[in-house]
Every structure is written in structure tokens, then in C-alpha cells.
Automatic annotation (TrEMBL):
Keyword ATP-binding: no
InterPro entries assigned to the protein according to its UniProt record, in alphabetical order: Ald_DH/histidinol_DH, Ald_DH_C, Ald_DH_N, Aldehyde_DH_dom
Record organism: Streptomyces cynarae
Keyword Nucleotidyltransferase part of the UniProt annotation: no
One Pfam family from the record: Aldedh
PANTHER family according to UniProt: ALDEHYDE DEHYDROGENASE-RELATED
Name of protein: Aldehyde dehydrogenase family protein
Alphabetic keyword roster: Oxidoreductase
Cited Gene3D superfamilies: Aldehyde Dehydrogenase, Chain A, domain 1 (3.40.605.10), Aldehyde Dehydrogenase, Chain A, domain 2 (3.40.309.10)
Length: 483
């Protein structure tokens, strides 16, 4: 609690120019530690260090880069217990989530990108007729993936291990260097990840971490001339501002932004599966996930039963200290975010939604808790239906015909992941193909971690996960020659 974290710049751990700020445990409101506040000059120094390290690192054999990632995975795995305790203290995640979905997923991502994949793809030879460029010839060609350069990784607070690992590991595997700006709410875990990378053999300047609570820190990284690409996970509003800055200097972007996932539940759906899937919004990280099925579109024949069963599911969940074994719903990340979510619930009531369950603050002396909340009889024009709440709140809208359900699902500024539940698999896949969204879960909220991940519309730009992340952190170069 008294340790004051330092910044990682060019392989050295340095004191922040602008002091430290308190990192708060959202469950106890106690002090987790003190995070550094970098100055703009220190951010620029980190970017310059990454630029200097880029040449040697990009020329390092892919097998050697992969070995660094593999050793990093081993180190994190060996410290899973204390790392998960820190992640839990910073983020308020339950023990299972902190161990499995935060630190555990980070280990899996470093291991995934420790696999060396080919970066050259031979293309079919092309016969060129004689002309202004010379005699007739056969031209060979290769499509070669090259690293982008220096990548600014701006991470989200809802997963202080898996999210930065999903940026850093593929970026390094492709030969890029990185400057990581962690979320201000739970940054300490990211510094532990950087320590593991350094111990695993990442050369000085390849990985830099410069954090801070002020927006100026992230802005300094995004607009730095030494940065070639920005990888951002967070709100659409912030993503739009970053895109404006990147546009001025034509920087590459990878953005995973907001979501308002539609869950279409048809009359013939398996209600047990649908309720369990939608219920993850209430429970998994207290709804602070952009992929959550927060906007339920229920066909009339199943509407009342679905609302009743979702309410029963929500009431059954224990809200409380995430360190206790039987806790399912932990706190939100901060008091400000709790107030925001509660304001949305009250707005829904004023708009005419029916509060079926939740809506009250759980009786805890400390912590930023919101009870799992279900708003039914909603209409498409309500703000609680259109806007991302990012908490344990589900809204339900009825529909009649299949076409109406599809139209309602697509009537959103967002398009990250939608879901379809139907006993008619042919219909489920037919509907999925018509949804304007980056991903669709058919009778599941599960993920395939090799499938591309990203959004349509205001949910993002680009795709990552699996081999798609290697593509995202690379430029495509054509090499041609006469055969």
C-alpha cells in the first residue's frame, strides 16, 4: 500500500515527474497502491526509446522474439496467485474472474503469440505481355508482412491483464515496439506485466509503460511523432478524439470501442440457454464488458416468460465482496461509474420502462456496488436502449416478426457482438448473416479465440485476436521480380 510505482522508460525504472495518485480498491475503498503520473516529456521520452529500439527488435529473428513471449508467459503463470490478487484489488473482479479471465487469459495470449507464423505469402505468377515497361515476362510476387513501427497501446480498465496482453504480445511478435498507457483506475497490473517482459529478456525500449490519471498522458502518446500506430480499447467518445489526432498524421489505428449487444430471443429458443447467456451481463465483471448482451429483443410468444426468468436469475445472484467464494457480482470500478449507472436506471424509469428487479444500492457499508437490474417494456427510442450503460443492467424490448427483430437489432450506433437464440438453427444463421455487427453468437455467448474480433459502425476499426492480430500490427508489402 505504501509502495510508489515507477515508470518504465527505455529499460529503466524512473520516478514520475508529476508525482503519484491513489489506486482505490472498488470493493473496500481502501488504498491498493500509488500509481505514477508521467509528464508529457516522459511520455515523449518513452516513445523516443521505443523508436530507437525498433530497428534492432524488428530485425531480431522471429524465433527469438517468440522465446521472449514464451518466457513471459511462464513467469506470469508462476506468479498467478499474487498477480490475480493485485488485479482483484484494483478492478473489483471476483476471484475466478481475476485468476481465469484476467491473468489466465494474459498467459494464454503470450503463449499464443509465441508461435511463429509465416509472414510471407507467395502469389501466383503473372504473365505480362510486351509493352512500355519491357519485353514479355513472367512476374513473381510475394506479399510480406512488415512491422508497423512504434505502437501506442492505450488499455481499458475492465481487464488490466488480458487487454494489454492482447495488444502487447502480437505487436511484439510482429517486431513492433510498444509504449503502453494503462487505464488510470487499475494500472499497477500492467507494470507487473512489463516487469515480467523485462525479466524474460525484452531489450531496453522494446516495452515502455507510462501511466497517469490525467488525459494529457494518453494524448501525449497518441500525438507523438515517434508513434506509428495507436491501439485503443475504451469508449467510443474517446476513440473518436483519438481518431481525429491520428487522422492528422495518418497514423494506423486499431480501435475496440463501445457496444450495446442485441440478444434476439425467438419463440422457439432454449430459454435455459438464453437466460444463462444473457445473465452474464449481470454477473461477469458486473456488466463492465462491451460484448455483453445488454439489449434483449424478445419475440412476443416468449417475452413474459423470458422477463420473469431473467428477473429470477438476477435476484439469485449474490452481490458483495469479490474475495468471498459465493460472490457472483462484485463492485463497479469507481464511485463515479456507480453513480453513472444508477443515473441510467433512474432515467429508464422516467422514460417509462418497468423496473422488474434491482435499481437499489445493495446494503454494503463500503464499495461501489449496483444490484443486477432488469428494465422491461422498453421501447427502441429510450436512451437506456440506445446508449451503452456498462453495468449490470439489461433492457428488454418486445418484437413480433423476424424482420422486425432484425431491424431493431440493427437500429443502433453500435455493432460489436450480437446474439441469436433459436431452436431453428437455419433461421439463427440466416438472421446472423443480416446483423450489422462484427460478431454473432448463435445460441451461445462463448468466443472462439482465433475468430476475428472487432466492430461495425461506432464499435471500432479493425480486427484482432488470433492471426488477425498479427495482421493488425503489421503493414503489407509487395515484393515482385521477373521470373
Amino acid at each position: 500500500m505504501t509502495e510508489r510505482q515507477r515508470l518504465l522508460i527505455g529499460g529503466a525504472w524512473v520516478e514520475p515527474d508529476d508525482g503519484h495518485y491513489r489506486v482505490t480498491d472498488p470493493a473496500t475503498e481502501g488504498i491498493v497502491g500509488w500509481a505514477p503520473e508521467a509528464s508529457r516529456e516522459q511520455v515523449r521520452a518513452a516513445c523516443a526509446a521505443a523508436r530507437e529500439a525498433f530497428g534492432p527488435w524488428s530485425r531480431t529473428p522471429p524465433e527469438e522474439r517468440a522465446a521472449v513471449l514464451a518466457r513471459t508467459a511462464d513467469l506470469i503463470q508462476g506468479r498467478l496467485g499474487p498477480y490475480a490478487e493485485l488485479a482483484q484489488a484494483e478492478s473489483g473482479a471476483t476471484t475466478g474472474t481475476a485468476r481465469g479471465m484476467q491473468v489466465g487469459v494474459a498467459v494464454a495470449r503470450f503463449r499464443r503469440y509465441a508461435r511463429v507464423e509465416p509472414v510471407e505469402q507467395p502469389l501466383p505468377p503473372q504473365i505480362n505481355e510486351a509493352g512500355p515497361f519491357g519485353p514479355a515476362t513472367v512476374m513473381g510476387a510475394l506479399a510480406v508482412r512488415q512491422p508497423v513501427g512504434v505502437v501506442a497501446c492505450v488499455t481499458s480498465y475492465n481487464n488490466p491483464w488480458a487487454n494489454p496482453a492482447g495488444k502487447v504480445a502480437p505487436a511484439l511478435a510482429m517486431g513492433n515496439t510498444v509504449v503502453v498507457k494503462p487505464a488510470p483506475q487499475d494500472p499497477l497490473s500492467v507494470y507487473r506485466m512489463a516487469e515480467a517482459l523485462q525479466e524474460a529478456g525484452a531489450p531496453p525500449g522494446v516495452v515502455n509503460v507510462v501511466g497517469g490519471a490525467r488525459p494529457e498522458v494518453g494524448e501525449a502518446a497518441v500525438d507523438c511523432p515517434d508513434v506509428d500506430m495507436v491501439s485503443f480499447t475504451g469508449s467510443t467518445a474517446v476513440g473518436q478524439r483519438i481518431a481525429e489526432v491520428c487522422g492528422r498524421s495518418v497514423k494506423r489505428q486499431l480501435m475496440e470501442l463501445g457496444g450495446k449487444g442485441a440478444a434476439l430471443v425467438f419463440d422457439d429458443a432454449d430459454l435455459d440457454a438464453a437466460v444463462a447467456g444473457i445473465g452474464t451481463t449481470f454477473s461477469f465483471y458486473s456488466g463492465q464488458i462491451c460484448t455483453a448482451p445488454t439489449r434483449v429483443l424478445a419475440q412476443r410468444g416468449v417475452y413474459d416468460r423470458l422477463v420473469d426468468r431473467l428477473a429470477a436469475y438476477a435476484r439469485h445472484l449474490k452481490v458483495g465482496d469479490p474475495r468471498e467464494r459465493d460472490t457472483v457480482v462484485g463492485p463497479l470500478i469507481s464511485a463515479a461509474h456507480r453513480d453513472r449507472v444508477e443515473a441510467y436506471v433512474e432515467l429508464g424509469r422516467k422514460e417509462g420502462a418497468r423496473l422488474v428487479t434491482g435499481g437499489e444500492r445493495p446494503p454494503h457499508d463500503r464499495g461501489f456496488y449496483v444490484a443486477p437490474t432488469l428494465l422491461a417494456d422498453c421501447t427502441p427510442d429510450m436512451r437506456v436502449v440506445r446508449e451503452e450503460i456498462f453495468g449490470p443492467v439489461v433492457v428488454v424490448v418486445p418484437f413480433d416478426a423476424e424482420e422486425e427483430g432484425i431491424d431493431l437489432a440493427n437500429a443502433s450506433d453500435y455493432g460489436l457482438i450480437d446474439y441469436v437464440w433459436s431452436g431453428d438453427v437455419a433461421r439463427a444463421f440466416r438472421v446472423a448473416r443480416r446483423l450489422r455487427t462484427g460478431g454473432v453468437g448463435v445460441n451461445t455467448v462463448g468466443r472462439n479465440m482465433e475468430a476475428p474480433f472487432g466492430g461495425f459502425k461506432k464499435s471500432g476499426v479493425g480486427r484482432d485476436v488470433g492471426s488477425y492480430a498479427l495482421h493488425a500490427y503489421s503493414e503489407l508489402q509487395a515484393v515482385v521480380w521477373p521470373g
